[in-house]
Design goal:
Layout: E1 2-6, E2 9-13, H1 22-28, H2 49-54, E3 60-64, H3 78-83, H4 92-95, E4 99-101, H5 106-109, H6 112-128
Length: about 130
C-alpha cells in the first residue's frame, strides 16, 4: 500500500494516481491492498487511518513529504508516525517492519536518479522479506 505522510498525518496514496508510490505499482507489478479513488494531490488521499489498517497491507511504500523540509519545521518522520500509530499496529506491514520510506529528496526531485534508487532499494527490501 502506498502512503504519504505530511503534517504529522498518515494518508493513503492511490496505486493508480496517487503521488509518489503509484508509478511503482505498475513498474514493479505490485498488487494493491486497497483500491480507492485517489488524486494527484501532493498530500495524499482522504481515507481514514482505520480504512488503511483494515486493508491489512503486507508492505507500505511511503512518501515522507515533509522529509525534504524537515530542517524548516517540526515534523515526525514517516517511520515514527507509522510505527507509533495504534491503528496500524496490527497491520502485517508494521508487525514485520515491511515499510519502505522513499529518499528524503524524492518529493522535490522525482528524477531518474531517485527513481533508480527507489527501484534498487525496493528490490533489496523485497528480497529481504
Amino acid at each position: 500500500m502506498g502512503l504519504v505522510t505530511s503534517g504529522n498525518e498518515i494518508r493513503y496514496s492511490s496505486p493508480t494516481d496517487g503521488r509518489g508510490s503509484s508509478i511503482f505499482f505498475e513498474l514493479v507489478g505490485l498488487t494493491p491492498a486497497l483500491e480507492a479513488e485517489g488524486s494527484s494531490n501532493h498530500q495524499g488521499d482522504d481515507i481514514s487511518i482505520e480504512a488503511i489498517a483494515e486493508a491489512d497491507a503486507d508492505f507500505f511504500l511511503v512518501l515522507d513529504r515533509d522529509a525534504a523540509f524537515a530542517a524548516d519545521q517540526e515534523v515526525t518522520p514517516a517511520l515514527e508516525l507509522i510505527n507509533g500509530s495504534a491503528s496500524l499496529a496490527p497491520v502485517p506491514a508494521v508487525q514485520n517492519q515491511a515499510i519502505y520510506v522513499m529518499p528524503g529528496d524524492f518529493y522535490l526531485t522525482e528524477d531518474i536518479l531517485v527513481y533508480t534508487t527507489v527501484l534498487e532499494e525496493l528490490a533489496a527490501a523485497f528480497t529481504a522479506l
